[in-house]
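Shift notes (night). Ran DNA topoisomerase 1 while the centrifuge was going.
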Amino acid sequence: MAKKKLLIVESPAKAGTIKKYLGKDYSVMASMGHVIDLPKSQLGVDVEHHFEPKYITIRGKGELLTKLKKEAKSADEIYLATDPDREGEAISWHLANALKIDTDSNCRVTFNEITKTAVKAAIKEPRRIDMDLVNAQQLRRILDRIVGYKISPILWEKVKKGLSAGRVQSVATRLICDREEEIMNFTPKEYWSVEALLRDPKSKKEFPAKYYGPVGGKEAALSAGAEADAIIAAVKEAEFTVTNVKRGEVSKNPPPPFTTSTMQQDASRKIGFSALKTMQTAQTLYEGINLGGKLGTVGLITYMRTDSLRIAAEAQQEALEFIQAEYGAAFAHRRQYKAKKNAQDAHEAIRPTSVSIKPSEIKDHLTNDQYKLYKLIWERFVACQMAAAVYNTISANIEANGHTFRASGSSLKFKGFMTVYTEGRDEKEKEKDKMLPDLQEQQRVDLKNIEGKQHFTQPPPRFTEATLVRELEENGIGRPSTYAPTISTIIARGYVVRSKKQLVPTELGFVTTDIMKQNFKDIVDVEFTAEMEEELDEVEEGKRHWVQVLEEFYPPFEENLEKAKKEIEKIQIKDEESDVVCEKCGRKMVYKLSKFGKFLACPGYPECKNTKSIREGTGVECPKCGGEILVKKSRKGKVYYGCEHAPKCDFMAWDAPVKGRKCPKCGGPLFEKKGRGKKIFCMKEGCGYEERNNEG
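Came back to this:
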């Protein structure tokens, strides 16, 4: 009689995928994430006795745990196949204790991708639970709990109810606040450039050349318009002679495959995903998608929480063979990438489980979001095993009356990896050829025009989600799994708001950060937080004991706590007043923030509980009834446009109305479709007017 086997994973979607691979001898159940954790109602850590954690069954998980225990009792073999990281290891440890599984037995199973081959191979090689990984998770959890539960009540008392502090979120908020202060304190400096438009007499081609400096001298910086005017006056009537021409080739290598951080950054730049949306979508691709037919349910990508750049040999070989067959041998180039010093190399980089599953061929089985992200991951991985792109380059020095001008150009000679992929930051720089005419040394060129241009130095840009993720990673703050929830938390708490993709600190963010800087310097110190991450890594590697780290951290932290309780004065943050008068009591309403965004509330609460949503007009008439089209948000926070007379008028559109223009055909309002298929068009029934921008 066959043995009855139980495999426990984290999510039902993953359970469904794996069950199909393992057959009838296996029962596959999901723990739905953590089953056991610290209690929400109290600190749950005994700081007097070696930081002993008090673990309880999470509220609402009792029934599930009873089912798991019942199934475990009747199973001959039990395997714990939670996610292959610190959190997953801790979940397996808690499950082993709850289900009375010997933690020294070979009960732990991990796989980097959910494919039939990977799952079956992993089942054949179970291992013991890695207590170093578990202890690293316990340390992180207890540190975060102590910081959050000890500082947050002080913020509630002194500033505002509902605030919170956190080991990573407070540093992230500080980075955004510090950047905003840099911007506010920035003093622009004036500088000038001089640009000549020249013409090659032979080819009749015109090309720009920028002023470099005096002949034989160093590059000159022009700080005033008078300097630019003097140069223009000196060369306006002079002969322009080409004195030096350099021709060459430049190679551009492909970027490495995705890590969690780079995937979040590129998804933000290229497809407009928030870090949270990227991770949620990646999770579904990892857990498995039903592709129908012979393929059935397949995990499409490898594990998506990783900072490793390692690629499995078989995956690399498959990619190289695919590239040779699809694009030709000249496009394939075997590459291995080196991860950063502190990278956890337990997993591979993020890649498709099989490059033969092309995005275009499975599009019908994916949601729009899944397709966009899978395409991005697939293209990045294929590109990383391709040849470099090659550019022909030319640069020329051109002299006129003792002054040097420089011109340069390039053209794409061999597309290489760019056949498949270009990085998000390169999107705005369209790959157009900018080649100079075939200039020869000592030839003359004609001056067609010359002008000076005034410029001002710019302040550093505000953080976007992509640049904040990069900053956190470069400073060693947090881990791949923490970036998305950190950004979501600081927005939900009202410390930061999103404004046209930028992260802007609120007054609340500034006040809270100032309190943290003055009273809990270490908690918001970038270097201290990075050092703490290194200590977590040392515990994971078995080099340090987790309790020892807490024993070093807690005494100075407790001292600061007691001092802060006495010294921080109560801060009153005034709500921003609006021009809207409360129709119930006559007071001017104020702006409040909830997890759904800004709304208006009466300041007379609790006597007057009147609230209103904020009306954001577009100044454009509704094509159905003539009312004003308003900017609205769906339940999921997506912006759309609807009539002010809804629900009487059912007009709605995802595309933005164009203010100040009317349809030349019917006089109705125009709308702008962005992204692919960009166009301006009329929505009035039977009109059909549209105009497209065919540039690039």
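Residues 426-431 have pLDDT under 50 and may be disordered. The radius of gyration is 31 Å.
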